[in-house]
Every structure is written in structure tokens, then in C-alpha cells.
Specification:
This protein is an alpha+beta fold and about 280 residues long. It is built from five helices and 15 strands. The strands form four sheets. Strands 1, 2, 3, 5, 13 and 15 form a six-stranded antiparallel beta sheet that branches.
Length: about 280
């Protein structure tokens, strides 16, 4: 798993049961997902859920301020952790339960497969610091600044972006974000897949973007998902040795600039137990 998640040519995989039975309940899937997360990295604390994972329900009616729970809204392609101080190297998404559901397919896009990556990555605006905030439900009382694009140790682009939370400082940044959003959603290289209950996607958060298609309207629909965000434990040990943490509320919360962002991924048809394969 660690080799796959760090490899630029893969960087993402899916696991899932061959058959679902009564043992695959909410409790078991949370425990299994937590175990997988600890094999890969160190889970970050989720301020919204107050735990080291977030479990959320999507249903017909919703009055929250988060796209996560909006059943009939397209969740555009994005990466996670854009608005927090903690580093988010990997993410895990598990489908816990689903009833009376049509639609809601998972969308994934590898940065190296994106048709417009070169144009936007090479635009100097993408390397400027953007302000990133979050809605009240996230329970984050601060804002962060960082660019949309950075470069890994091999000169490849990394991205940190979500369409909901940037606060452009000027028209130039606003126009750039619009071009970025349009380019991602218009991409013909997205992988769209319907994951069965009990399946989990584990992805590199630097070059894999993810989203969700709208559900078909149904007053009885019910969808439960779990997410966990992780920091690379190997990298964290190196950073803590170089930058000993001060006694602060955020022991691992500083976004430490690095000329060596770590890791990589790609795309293929998704199925339980599959690895996102080589590029076309």
C-alpha cells in the first residue's frame, strides 16, 4: 500500500469486499478504515467531527453549509486539507452505507492526465498565495494562505485546491480560479465510477483530485460516507527532527514549506481491489 500511494504512476487504489454480509456494519468499516489509515500515515484530527475521521450522512433534505451533504449538487473536483494548517498527504474515503440511491458516482482525475494542467500550472498566478477559509460547520477559526500549484522533487506539479473556499485577493486571482474550475470540470480524462458499499478509495492528495456526481432525487435516499486525512509519518519524523515543535495548540499544524513535496498517482477503470494504473 505504501509503495502504491507514493508512486507517481499509481498513487491511488481501491479496496472492497467480494460479498457484503451482516459483519460489514458501520462499526466494522470504521475500524477497518482506521486500521488502513494507520498503516499508511498518521490521521489528522477532524475539527468538524471532533474525531480522527469524519462520518457524514447525505439525504434528501439538507440545511447545512457544506457541499458534502448536498445530495443534488455536483461536488466539483478538489483536493482535501486546503483550508487547514495540518499537512494532508493522503486521504481515505469509505462508503459505509447506501439506501434508495441512484447517481452519486465518484469522480477522480490524476493531475498528469489533465488536459489543461500545463497551461494553468505555468501561469504565474497559480504560484501566488491565495487565502483559504471555510464555513462555520468546519469549526476552523482561522484562514490559511498558500498557492494552488507547487512543484515536487522531480519537477512535477502538485495541486492544493477546492472551489468552495478560496478568497481571491484581486480580479487576476478570481479569473484564474474560474479558468481552473472550468478546466477541471470540462476534462474528458476524469474516471467516473460507482463504488459498492464497503469499498474505500485511498489516494495521494497532491496529484489526485476527487469529486462526486449529483444523486438522482429521491425523498428516501440515504448515503453514509467516512473520510480520513493523513500525514506521511516518515516525512513528519524528518520535519520534527529539523523543526522541533513549540508548545502550541497545533503540534503538527504548521504548513512547512518544502522543496520536496512527497509522492505521486494515475488513472484507470476502478473496481474493488484495483490500483489506478499507468497513464495513457
Amino acid at each position: 500500500m505504501n509503495k502504491i500511494i507514493r508512486d507517481r504512476e499509481t498513487g491511488c487504489f481501491i479496496i472492497g469486499p467480494k460479498k457484503i454480509n451482516s459483519k460489514f456494519d458501520h462499526t466494522f468499516l470504521v475500524k477497518l478504515s482506521t486500521a488502513i489509515a494507520h498503516l499508511i500515515g498518521i490521521p489528522n484530527h477532524d475539527s468538524m467531527a471532533g474525531k480522527y475521521y469524519a462520518r457524514f450522512i447525505v439525504k434528501h433534505e439538507d440545511k447545512s453549509d457544506s457541499y458534502l451533504r448536498k445530495a443534488y449538487t455536483n461536488m466539483d473536483l478538489h483536493t482535501d486539507g486546503t483550508y487547514v494548517k495540518e499537512v494532508t498527504d493522503w486521504l481515505l474515503m469509505t462508503k459505509i452505507d447506501e439506501q434508495n440511491v441512484e447517481g452519486g458516482e465518484t469522480a477522480m482525475l490524476h493531475l498528469d492526465d489533465w488536459e489543461h494542467c500545463g497551461d494553468l500550472y505555468n501561469d504565474p498566478v497559480g504560484k501566488q498565495n491565495f487565502i483559504w477559509g471555510s464555513p462555520k460547520s468546519k469549526n476552523i477559526d482561522y484562514k490559511v494562505e498558500h498557492p494552488v500549484f507547487s512543484t515536487d522533487e522531480n519537477g512535477k506539479p502538485n495541486i492544493s485546491y477546492i472551489d468552495q473556499f478560496p478568497e481571491p485577493k484581486n480580479m487576476e486571482q478570481g479569473n484564474f480560479l474560474q479558468r481552473l474550475s472550468d478546466g477541471l470540470e470540462e476534462s474528458k480524462n476524469k474516471t467516473i465510477t460507482k463504488l459498492p458499499v464497503g469499498s474505500a478509495i485511498i489516494a495521494n492528495n497532491y496529484f489526485w483530485l476527487h469529486g462526486r456526481k449529483p444523486f438522482k432525487e429521491n425523498k428516501r435516499m440515504w448515503h453514509v460516507n467516512m473520510t480520513t486525512f493523513m500525514v506521511d509519518s516518515q516525512y513528519l519524523c524528518q520535519i520534527l527532527a529539523k523543526y522541533p515543535p513549540k508548545k502550541t495548540k497545533y503540534q503538527t499544524a504548521n504548513r512547512i514549506p518544502s522543496s520536496k513535496p512527497r509522492v505521486g498517482g494515475s488513472s484507470c477503470v476502478l473496481c474493488p481491489g484495483s490500483v489506478f494504473g499507468s497513464h495513457s
